[in-house]
Amino acid sequence: MRPVIPYVTAALLFGLGVYGVLRRRNAVLVLMAVELMLNAVNLILITADTTVQAVLPHGGQVFALFVIVLAAAEIGVGLAIVLQLYRMRADVAVDRIPLSEQPEGQR
Fold first, then answer.
1. Which of 71, 63, 62, 61 minimizes the C-alpha distance to 39?
2. Residues whose CB falls within 8 Å of the CB of residue 79, separated by 6 or more in sequence, listed in order
3. Which residues cross the membrane (predicted)?
4. Against a cut of 0.90, is the pTM above it?
């Protein structure tokens, strides 16, 4: 098997994810773009595992499983933060999130 097609597909997925993170304003769409990047990494790990003879058998598949678990945890925590932000401000636009809260008396 030629690994060029999966590597190019992974590069396109990763590039699309980076574009989504940099250009989107909605926090849910940013999380979806991060998931695209993690899936691209999984594709690279699995392709490298099947094409490269490594010392550790099925090492890429094990690392891909860890990335999937990490992605599930990231989505759980990320969506909880987005839901709390929506409850507090009724908006999930990333560019409107204050990075430092000032006390009430200093506004």
1. 71
2. 28, 31
3. 6-22, 29-48, 60-86
4. no
